[in-house]
């Protein structure tokens, strides 16, 4: 095991060490450094849980991920947090280019105290690059195909492609899915295959997408600037896709239309999906939705008889999902309609009945979620 003290360059924007030409950014999972932890403690909340109780609009797990910088907050989430603390929302934002800001120092309170195994971090990066390369070189290897044929859910696929865990931290089911995906018999064969592809140069083009401190800093800088602008303008705004963006980039965002009407998506696809292509139908927009709002007309009773076919749903990506509601999840080929429930850990789970499908929503990029705000039954 190698401790963090032995890692070269763990200062601001340079948390990279080269282990056999593989860049290992120890802070690759941090996309949104912020002042939330220090301001929470300064305003009397020694622990996060009491603050979460004061912000019912944000589930505890998502609030924790925001504080730890693992997900980018939405403008309205920053407003909720700031209101609970009695501060201006803008004070939660950090300037990652400010003199003296050090990502290593910022991240230190969130470490679990365990040593960092650089060899395993290196393999996690190589594995992420190998999965990306595999999909880039095979057009038939879609997200849906990987889940169907190899049993690897989209959420875990995204985590693997971004090296969010070392191999030892993945459970047996994910490991078996990887063996199936790469056509190997077990861990030793997988490691040998990945190392061989790295030596051949086949992974070089994908490494920076997985682990590059300069790219991480650029993404954080851009998203924080967008949040600052949205807060200043008073608009709800939306965070741009995070690291998972390359996985989902083939699905277009809803097209903005005049405030009076919004587009309707209604074309049914296999697997219970709704095509992310607007039809010629337009419907009146409710007064309280953002310009990104759109509508879908269900073509299957994917949630059972309680939501019949031809129900018209209006969704707004600028809203936050909440338990008991409905949400549209953007996938590679279209939108998936899910009901939302709270799970045992306090997070949110989205599910459908036909087909049977379940996904932890707190692990999804917020830019992929469009909560349903109204439903009109046929």
List keywords for this structure.
two-stranded antiparallel ribbon, ten-stranded mixed β-sheet, 378 residues, globular, alpha+beta, 34% helix, disordered N terminus, 12 strands
Show the helix and strand layout.
Elements (H helix, E strand, L loop, with lengths): L15 E4 L2 E4 L10 H7 L5 H6 L6 H8 L7 H11 L17 H5 L10 H19 L6 H8 L3 H8 L10 H11 L4 H13 L4 H7 L2 H21 L11 H4 L12 E5 L8 E2 L6 E3 L9 E4 L14 E4 L10 E5 L3 E9 L5 E5 L4 E4 L8 E8 L2
Parallel strand pairs: 3-6
Antiparallel strand pairs: 1-2, 3-5, 4-9, 6-7, 7-12, 8-9, 8-12, 9-10, 10-11
Helix pairs in contact: 6-8, 6-10, 6-11
Q: Could you describe the 3D structure shown?
A:
This protein is an alpha+beta fold. It is built from 13 helices and 12 strands. The protein has helices at 36-42, 48-53, 60-67, 75-85, 103-107, 118-136, 143-150, 154-161, 172-182, 187-199, 204-210, 213-233, 245-248; strands spanning 16-19, 22-25, 261-265, 274-275, 282-284, 294-297, 312-315, 326-330, 334-342, 348-352, 357-360, 369-376. Strands 3, 4, 5, 6, 7, 8, 9, 10, 11 and 12 form a 10-stranded mixed β-sheet that branches. Strands 1-2 form a two-stranded antiparallel ribbon. The longest helix has 21 residues, at 213-233. Residues 1-20 and 237-259 have low confidence and may be disordered.
